[in-house]
C-alpha cells in the first residue's frame, strides 16, 4: 500500500494561481466588501467603486475608485441608475486598469439604487472585455423599499444577466429568514452581507484551492448553468464533535435553497467539503450519506474535497445548484412540507472512490497564500470525477446534464456578441455589425451639468488597519429559521414615489449619446425610445434567492462609447483622500432621495456601519 503524502505537491509548481478580483459597487457592494476585508478569508484584489466620496472614504477596501468624479462631484447617484451608469462610463479607464489581468472578477452590488444598478452592468462588460470570467452577486431590494426600486433592480438584473457568466441573486426579503423579526433591520443587512461574503469566499475557494478531489470552473458553471433559472446556494461551517453533520445542516438551512426543499428538483448539485488537516474520510463519507437523503437519485453530483489549513478545526460544506424558473414555480405552487425526502440510504460517492477515480488528485498541502497552485481555467473532462464506486450500491453514473459550454471554463474570448460600451481601440473592433438598439430611457432625461467631462480621480490606499471599537457584531449562533418573512408588508408604510432629484436647469448635460459611436446610427425613434424593461418573471409565491444567467450576450442596449481621451487617470495622491468628517445624522448620499424607512423609522439606505453607529479608529 502506498502511503498518501499529505504534503506532496502534485500540481505543477510553476502553474500560476488564478487571479481573482472582487469589486464592490455602491453602498451595498461596499458593505459586503467591508465584511470580506474584515474577515480576511478571501484572497483577492479588493476594489470598492462608488460615486459617493463619503462612503468611499470610509470603505475598508485597499483600492477605491470614485466613479464619475467630475460628473457626480462626489455625491451619490441619488437612486438614479442612469447617473450611476454615466458615472461608470466616465471612469471606465480606471475601472479597466483595476480589473484587467484577473482571471475571475466578482462583482457585488445592491440593485435598486443608482450607483449599483447603473454601474454594475458597465463594470461587468469591462470585465468581460478583459477576458475575465465574470461572476455577479447582487441583492434585490426588500419589498417595503417600494416599487420604483424594485423596477430599477429588475432592469439592472436584466442587463447583468446578459453580461455575467453566472449571477447569484440574493433577495433581501429572504434574508429576513436568517434572523428573528424582533432583531433590528441592521442585523438583517449584516446577515445578508455575511451570506454574500460567504458565497464569494466559497466560490473563490472552490476554483482556486487545490483539492483532494478537485472541482474546477467547468464544474461550477455546469452547476450554475440553466438558461433562465435561479442559483441555489447553501453554505455551512461548524466546529466540534459533529462538525460535518452540523455544517451540512447549516448549509441546508440556507434560505437560498428554501430549507433544502429546492434540492429535490435539482439535476446537478455541486458539493464542496473543506476542512483543516484534521478532516477525516469518515466525516466526508458521513456528510455525503446524509446529503443523499435530500437529493433525488438522478441528481448529478459534482463532488470536491479540499484540505485548507486556514480552516483550522472547522469543516465547511458548500452546496451550489440551479433550477429553471418553471421548476421553481411548480415547487412554489405545490410546496411540500419543509421536511426532506424520505431517507433512501442511497450511498453517495465516497471520498475514497472519488480519490481513486479522479486524475486530478491535487495535494492538500497546507495552504499558504503563495503556495496555492491553481489550474488554469481550462475545460476538463468531468467524467472521471463522477466517482463511479466499485460497490454496486454506489451512485449510478448519471447522464451528464447539459455540460457547461467549454467557453465558460476557458478564458473568455471577445466575441461579437459583446455589448460595446466604449470607444476604446481594443474594444471597438468587436462592435457587432447589426444596428444597436437605442440607449434606454436616458434621452429624455433632464440635463444636469453643463460642464464637459474632466478627469476622474482614483486613489489607492495601502490596506489600512482599521478596527471597530466594538467586538465582532455578527453572531455565531445558528439563526432561527422559523419565520418566513422579515417584516410583514402591512406593517410598513408604502414608500412614497418620491420625485427624482431635482434636475439643475443647466442646459448642456452630458448625455450617453455624446459618447456613442457615430455609426451605425439607428433611425431616430420618436418618443418610443424607452422600451419597457424586459422584466424577469418572478415566482408568484416564493421569492427565491438566486439567479443564474449564462452568458448570452445579444447586442443591444447600452451601446455607448465615450471618447477614449475624456478620462485621465490621476496618480494617487494623499490630497485626494478627502477628510469627510460627517456626522451620523447626515444622510450623505441619500440626502436627495426618499428615505426607505422601516417601521422603527430607521433609514435603510444608510450603510451598515453607519446604522450600527460604529466608529472607526485608525
Ligand atoms: N444586503 C444588503 N443590501 C443592502 C445594503 N445596503 C443597501 N442594500 C440594498 O441595496 C439597494 C441599493 O442601495 P445602495 O447600494 O446603498 O445604493 P447605491 O447602489 O449605492 O446607489 P445610490 O445610493 O443611489 O448611489 C438598497 O435598495 C437595498 O435593498 C446592505 O448593507 N446589505
UniProtKB/TrEMBL annotation:
Pfam families: FtsZ_C, Tubulin. The keyword Cell cycle applies. It is found in: Cytoplasm. Residues 143-170 form a coiled coil. Keywords: Cell cycle, Cell division, Coiled coil, Cytoplasm, GTP-binding, Nucleotide-binding, Septation. It comes from the Bacteria. Residues 374-397, 526-539 have a biased composition (Low complexity). SUPFAM superfamilies: Tubulin C-terminal domain-like, Tubulin nucleotide-binding domain-like. Residues 213-332 form the Tubulin/FtsZ 2-layer sandwich domain. Residues 374-410, 453-542, 570-603 are annotated as: Disordered. GTP binds at residues 27-31, 114-116, 145, 149, 193. Its main location: cytoplasm. Residues 584-594 have a biased composition (Basic and acidic residues). Residues 19-211 form the Tubulin/FtsZ GTPase domain. The keyword GTP-binding applies. HAMAP family: FtsZ. Essential cell division protein that forms a contractile ring structure (Z ring) at the future cell division site. The regulation of the ring assembly controls the timing and the location of cell division. One of the functions of the FtsZ ring is to recruit other cell division proteins to the septum to produce a new cell wall between the dividing cells. Binds GTP and shows GTPase activity. Homodimer. Polymerizes to form a dynamic ring structure in a strictly GTP-dependent manner. Interacts directly with several other division proteins. Belongs to the FtsZ family. This is Cell division protein FtsZ.
Amino acid at each position: 500500500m502506498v502511503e498518501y503524502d499529505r504534503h506532496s505537491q502534485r500540481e505543477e509548481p510553476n502553474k500560476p494561481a488564478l487571479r481573482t478580483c472582487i469589486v464592490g459597487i455602491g453602498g451595498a457592494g461596499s458593505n459586503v466588501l467591508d465584511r470580506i476585508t474584515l474577515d480576511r478569508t478571501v484572497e483577492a484584489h479588493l476594489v470598492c467603486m462608488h460615486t459617493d466620496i463619503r462612503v468611499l472614504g470610509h470603505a475598508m477596501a485597499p483600492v477605491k475608485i470614485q466613479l464619475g468624479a467630475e460628473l457626480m462631484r462626489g455625491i451619490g447617484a441619488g437612486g438614479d441608475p442612469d447617473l450611476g451608469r454615466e458615472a461608470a462610463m466616465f471612469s471606465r479607464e480606471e475601472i479597466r486598469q483595476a480589473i484587467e489581468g484577473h482571471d475571475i472578477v466578482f462583482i457585488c452590488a445592491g440593485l435598486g439604487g443608482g450607483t449599483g444598478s447603473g454601474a454594475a452592468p458597465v463594470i461587468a462588460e469591462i470585465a468581460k472585455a478583459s477576458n475575465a470570467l465574470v461572476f455577479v452577486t447582487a441583492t434585490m431590494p426588500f419589498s417595503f423599499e417600494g416599487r420604483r426600486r424594485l423596477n430599477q433592480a429588475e432592469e439592472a438584473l436584466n442587463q447583468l444577466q446578459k453580461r455575467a457568466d453566472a449571477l447569484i441573486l440574493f433577495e433581501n426579503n429572504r434574508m429576513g429568514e436568517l434572523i428573528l423579526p424582533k432583531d433590528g433591520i441592521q442585523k438583517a443587512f449584516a446577515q445578508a452581507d455575511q451570506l454574500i461574503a460567504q458565497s464569494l469566499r466559497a466560490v473563490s475557494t472552490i476554483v482556486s484551492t487545490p483539492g483532494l478531489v478537485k472541482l474546477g470552473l467547468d464544474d461550477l458553471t455546469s452547476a450554475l448553468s440553466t438558461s433562465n433559472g435561479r442559483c441555489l446556494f447553501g453554505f455551512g461551517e461548524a466546529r466540534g464533535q459533529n462538525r460535518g453533520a452540523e455544517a451540512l445542516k447549516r448549509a441546508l438551512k440556507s434560505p437560498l435553497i428554501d430549507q433544502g426543499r429546492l434540492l429535490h428538483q435539482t439535476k446537478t448539485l455541486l458539493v464542496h467539503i473543506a476542512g483543516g488537516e484534521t478532516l477525516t474520510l469518515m466525516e466526508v463519507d458521513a456528510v455525503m450519506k446524509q446529503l443523499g437523503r435530500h437529493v433525488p437519485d438522478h441528481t448529478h453530483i459534482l463532488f470536491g474535497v479540499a484540505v485548507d489549513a486556514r480552516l483550522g478545526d472547522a469543516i465547511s460544506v458548500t452546496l451550489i445548484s440551479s433550477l429553471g424558473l418553471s421548476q421553481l414555480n411548480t415547487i412554489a405552487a405545490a410546496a411540500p412540507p419543509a421536511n426532506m425526502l424520505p431517507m433512501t440510504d442511497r450511498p453517495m460517492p465516497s471520498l475514497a472512490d472519488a480519490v481513486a477515480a479522479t486524475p486530478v488528485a491535487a495535494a492538500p498541502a497546507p495552504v499558504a497564500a503563495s503556495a496555492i497552485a491553481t489550474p488554469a481555467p481550462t475545460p476538463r473532462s468531468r467524467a472521471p470525477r463522477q466517482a463511479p464506486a466499485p460497490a454496486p450500491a454506489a451512485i449510478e453514473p448519471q447522464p451528464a446534464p447539459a455540460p457547461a459550454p467549454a467557453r465558460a471554463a476557458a478564458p473568455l474570448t471577445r466575441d461579437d456578441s459583446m455589448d460595446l460600451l466604449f470607444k476604446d481601440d481594443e474594444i471597438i473592433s468587436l462592435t457587432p455589425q447589426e444596428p444597436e438598439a437605442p440607449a434606454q430611457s436616458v434621452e429624455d432625461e433632464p440635463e444636469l451639468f453643463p460642464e464637459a467631462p474632466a478627469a476622474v480621480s482614483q486613489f489607492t490606499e495601502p490596506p489600512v488597519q482599521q478596527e471597530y471599537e466594538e467586538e465582532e457584531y455578527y453572531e455565531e449562533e445558528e439563526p432561527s429559521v422559523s419565520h418566513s418573512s422579515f417584516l410583514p408588508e402591512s406593517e410598513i408604510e408604502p414608500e412614497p414615489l418620491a420625485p427624482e432629484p431635482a434636475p439643475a436647469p443647466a442646459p448642456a448635460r452630458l448625455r450617453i449619446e455624446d459618447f456613442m459611436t457615430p455609426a451605425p446610427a439607428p433611425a431616430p425613434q420618436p418618443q418610443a425610445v424607452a422600451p419597457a424593461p424586459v422584466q424577469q418573471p418572478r415566482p408568484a409565491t416564493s421569492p427565491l434567492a438566486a439567479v443564474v444567467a449564462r452568458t448570452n450576450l445579444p447586442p443591444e442596449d447600452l451601446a455607448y462609447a465615450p471618447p477614449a481621451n475624456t478620462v485621465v487617470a490621476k496618480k494617487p495622491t494623499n490630497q485626494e483622500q478627502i477628510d469627510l468628517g460627517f456626522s451620523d445624522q447626515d444622510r450623505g448620499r441619500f440626502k436627495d432621495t426618499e428615505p426607505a424607512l422601516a417601521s422603527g423609522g430607521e433609514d435603510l439606505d444608510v450603510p451598515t456601519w453607519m446604522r450600527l453607529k460604529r466608529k472607526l479608529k485608525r
